[in-house]
């Protein structure tokens, strides 16, 4: 059965140079839950950061965190001494593992992004940070694999049975959601608008179907879509400082 989480049901927090919409993916079920994650997909922050925004050095532990940059540039500094500019052409995956510190600053170009928190398969794995330099064509409606488990050979490795794709279909396109046997789709409308059967979805909405493949998306306004394919039976640790919150 198709289930939808509307943007109007997720709160906007902050103001000024730091605003975010905190999304708990399990809320798409619209029922009381002991845990508001969707399998290992724990939380998504849809953030808008103005020039001058700074998130000072802070700790992550046992969190898998994808920084999906859609607009702008952000400077990442971390406890390994790296300083890297991330942008829509350079995405970042932090496998926080046993301990990892980083900070984020927006010195020149305001940012719109998703920060995606995933529960790893086990606690206290070796920490590392990865970057994916990619050509970006907002006219390309094909799904591109961004991250996945080690065996997927995805550009960014996630220590969990979850695959992450994006696509940028144009108005008038029809696009099929990617599928893999035994995995459940959860799709976020980053920008634009789509029609899925009788359902109209706009920026900030999400859709899933736990029982079958989602129908094709009819793109009614040029869009950016982010799709997650999730093994809801995969083991995960609750030890994450952020992803382990129920």
UniProtKB/TrEMBL annotation:
Domain Pirin N-terminal: 51-118
Coiled coil regions in record: none
InterPro entries reported for this sequence: Pirin (IPR012093), Pirin_N_dom (IPR003829), Quercetinase_C (IPR041602), RmlC-like_jellyroll (IPR014710), RmlC_Cupin_sf (IPR011051)
Domain Quercetin 2,3-dioxygenase C-terminal cupin intervals: 145-227
Signal sequence extent: none
Family: Belongs to the pirin family.
PANTHER family linked to this entry: QUERCETIN 2,3-DIOXYGENASE
Protein's name in the database: Pirin family protein
């Amino acid at each position: 059965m198709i289930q939808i989480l509307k943007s109007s049901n997720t709160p906007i927090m902050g103001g000024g140079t730091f605003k975010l919409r905190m999304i708990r993916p399990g809320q798409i079920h619209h029922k009381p839950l002991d845990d508001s994650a969707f399998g290992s997909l724990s939380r998504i922050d849809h953030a808008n950061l103005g020039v001058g925004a700074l998130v000072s050095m802070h700790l992550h532990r046992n969190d898998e965190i994808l920084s999906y940059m859609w607009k702008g540039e952000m400077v990442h500094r971390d406890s390994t001494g790296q300083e890297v500019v991330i942008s829509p052409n350079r995405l970042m995956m932090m496998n926080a593992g046993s301990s990892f510190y980083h900070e984020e600053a927006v010195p020149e170009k305001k940012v719109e992004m998703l920060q995606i928190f995933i529960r790893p398969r086990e606690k206290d794995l070796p920490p590392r940070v990865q970057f994916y330099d990619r050509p970006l064509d907002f006219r390309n409606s094909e799904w591109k694999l961004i991250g996945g488990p080690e065996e997927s050979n995805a550009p960014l490795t996630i220590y969990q049975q979850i695959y992450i794709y994006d696509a940028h279909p144009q108005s008038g396109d029809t696009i099929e959601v990617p599928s893999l046997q035994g995995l459940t789709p959860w799709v976020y409308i980053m920008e634009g608008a789509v029609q899925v059967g009788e359902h109209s979805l706009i920026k900030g909405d999400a859709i899933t179907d736990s029982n079958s493949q989602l129908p094709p998306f009819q793109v009614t306004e040029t869009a950016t879509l982010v799709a997650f394919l999730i093994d809801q039976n995969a083991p995960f640790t609750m030890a994450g400082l952020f992803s382990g919150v129920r």
